[in-house]
Specification:
By secondary structure, the protein is α/β, with parallel strands linked by helices. It contains 14 helices and 11 strands. The strands form 3 sheets. It has a 7-stranded mixed β-sheet, with helices on both faces. The chain is globular and about 70 Å long.
């Protein structure tokens, strides 16, 4: 299988190097008579490119010298996305042509934006790093974005989430285009788990405030100070001088969330913080964040975060382990 690793200015060198190393590992672990991948590294003009740190990355060939490839793999741009974005349109024609010719296009982390800029993701289910989800929705509203997912595959378009999801993507590609057995061998030799499905457990929800509705922003300020108290949405609308239906519509237009979903997100973030930083039981946490019914809040937590409160605490608790009482 012919793979083109597409390097653009400001690409993550870590992502690019990881892709080369893992695909090379797959080739070395495969039977000598059935090496699965032939990888070339390409840039727009065939010249070396500067990575996110300003260091030079070597390439093999210019994109236009490649008439056909089976798979295009684009490393991400985690902290350099905003610098890289203005040039993404320069890659669109080549990406669309390769896709029309039958190539699979796969993006690592925020390289999803390059695919979206080319129009390849219009109407397509995709994922990207959760921290850039709001930006993607604003720039590319036709993308069916689900930032909870580690991987999305829709037809011949594959996207992956944050930086650590690069390994999930690479193992998925090895499993899909070589064999499940080879992907399992790579997992064992590289000491990594199999492909994960969600990144929702890692999401830190940020309050969407980059809108022009000052009245809604005042509601947000009040909610962020009072979300632990009993809050009725209709009463909240009345408190700020809105009609109930108009309030719900206007709040959603400004923030992208219904008032209820916004309130739930505030409470979930507080619950996650308490699970990370205290040993309070979940029933006590439920009351602290403004819920009365622990069972319903537990179901909401599992649904939105993707794992149970106990599993979340086990993974993220930042306190030292409890010490035994000294003997007397």
């Amino acid at each position: 299988m012919h793979i083109t690793l597409l390097l653009a200015e400001h690409s993550s060198q870590a992502s690019a190097t990881l892709a080369l190393e893992v695909l090379d590992a797959a080739n070395r672990l495969a039977a000598p008579s059935a090496v699965p991948f032939a990888v070339v590294v390409a840039s727009l003009d065939g010249l070396p490119v500067k990575n996110a740190l300003g260091r030079t990355m070597a390439v093999d060939v210019a994109l236009d010298a490649l008439d056909h490839t089976d798979l295009v793999l684009v490393p991400g741009f985690l902290f350099s996305l905003r610098e890289a974005l203005p040039a993404f349109g320069r890659y669109s024609d080549w990406l669309r042509r390769q896709h029309r010719q039958g190539a699979v296009i796969a993006s690592m982390c925020t390289a999803t934006f390059m695919l979206a800029e080319a129009g390849l993701l219009d109407g397509v289910q995709a994922t990207s790093h959760w921290a850039f989800a709001d930006l993607m929705r604003r720039r590319y509203p036709a993308v069916r974005l689900d930032e909870r997912r580690i991987l999305c595959e829709d037809g011949r378009l594959i996207s992956s989430a944050g930086a650590s999801a690069a390994m999930d993507l690479l193992l998925h590609l090895i499993r899909r285009f070589a064999s499940r057995e080879l992907a399992q061998q790579c997992s064992r030799y590289l000491l990594v788990d199999g492909v994960r499905s969600e990144q929702s457990v890692y999401i830190k929800w940020s309050m969407p405030r980059d809108h022009a509705d000052e009245a809604v922003r005042r509601v947000q300020d009040w909610l962020e100070s009072n979300f632990t108290a009993p809050v009725g949405i209709d009463e909240l609308a009345e408190r700020f001088g809105f009609g109930a239906r108009n309030f719900k519509r206007r709040f959603k237009d400004a923030t992208g969330y219904t008032p209820l979903a916004y309130l739930q997100a505030l409470r979930l973030e507080r619950a996650k913080h308490l699970l990370e930083t205290t040993r309070l039981g979940f029933d006590a946490i439920t009351i602290r964040v403004g819920y009365e019914d622990g069972n319903s809040f537990r179901r909401l937590f599992c649904q939105r975060v993707g794992i149970s409160p106990a599993a979340f605490r086990k993974r993220f608790l930042r306190l030292p382990a409890a010490q035994p009482e000294p003997s007397r």
